[in-house]
User: Fold this.
Amino acid sequence: MLAGSPRGESPARRKIAASKAASTVARVKRNEIVCDRDGWETVSTVQHFANAHLEVLTDSVRTPLHPQPRSWTIAHRKAAVVIAPMTRDGKIILIRQERIPIRAAIWEMPSGQIDRGGAGKQEIQQAALCELREEAGYELAADGELIALGYFFSSPGFTDEHCYFFLAQPVEPCADFVRDETEAILDCRPFAIEELRRMIAENEIRDANTLGICARLAARGLLSLDPR
Amino acid sequence: MLAGSPRGESPARRKIAASKAASTVARVKRNEIVCDRDGWETVSTVQHFANAHLEVLTDSVRTPLHPQPRSWTIAHRKAAVVIAPMTRDGKIILIRQERIPIRAAIWEMPSGQIDRGGAGKQEIQQAALCELREEAGYELAADGELIALGYFFSSPGFTDEHCYFFLAQPVEPCADFVRDETEAILDCRPFAIEELRRMIAENEIRDANTLGICARLAARGLLSLDPR
Assistant:
């Protein structure tokens, strides 16, 4: 009933020329990774919904392959960071977190959104260290290094969400850590690489952030997912 | 301006008790993977937007950790399939596809949504073989096997979208393949595992589907991401 039905859509939707929509869309859309260039052109934008975490738009877009504009509904999201915290003895710290959209608690890497759109390199790194502290209760050792590992798109068919990957190595527990009670984190502990591998193989680890950063780490020779 | 502003939300939003909302929500929400159980309870649901591809709701939910209901805005999506097509000589077929939400064409594994909610094992396998044919122009060899590799969540902080992983091995080009002109696929070809690894390491492969299935394949010993 809902699919394609006007009753399912907001009657308050607004069609705005892309140039005038810039101030509205800029927060989530214009950044160095997702923007119009090289034959991509946003012709118009209709906003359906927006709150602090999600903006839903239907964009009319010319693409290099299809110069005739195509309409596409897009969930705009802030960029995020995902951190692989590695201890001095080569273990990875995971958190177990309740995730309301999937009605489950899962083991995953610490992660979080970057509050300010268009954040620079230093702000992105700060966001990573902040999530490492707040979610895991760990921090970089005095001789530690935060290694940037690029980024990924969580579901490029419907959202512009992208997440920057970092390896933090070595990490140590924060001396004075007290978990924020409003967080949804149930547990946090180090896992040997072989245990991480088994959890990925057996579908226990099943979120894009953790699978994605593990693939990147493996391809860069920083961790092996091969069975022993 | 938009964040938290009532003007940014649809005035047509409807608050519906979860029990009455079942017929509305069932299509995208109730399935064997995402559902209320073990201390999870949906108290109410407000629908903000819906079309054939996306439904945006704010659910009020009791969780095992927080029995006091919490509000969370969720992008409901159909389940999907991701297929790693492997040739007889051990190469992986990737497609290069325009993805409007990120304004870019990227190399990735074939994938697609499962049209019917609550699809059974056989329908999910059929969807995988269908995407293999339609997107890549390949099919399972007569002695080929479709190996189920579990599933993953693309971004469990804001969407219930989950994708089933499959390895199709070995695959062969369809004899009579003609690409659908309405698809956004620019290119399709086999890649050696070492080239796939390099593309992951260098951020050329940067979508959750491809990174996620590669991590799962590696952890199950079906492909190695270790640098040679």
Remarks:
- The first strand of chain A starts at residue 14 and ends at 17.
- Chain A touches chain B through 88 residues (CB under 8 Å).
- Helices of chain A lie at 18-25, 121-136, 193-201, 208-219.
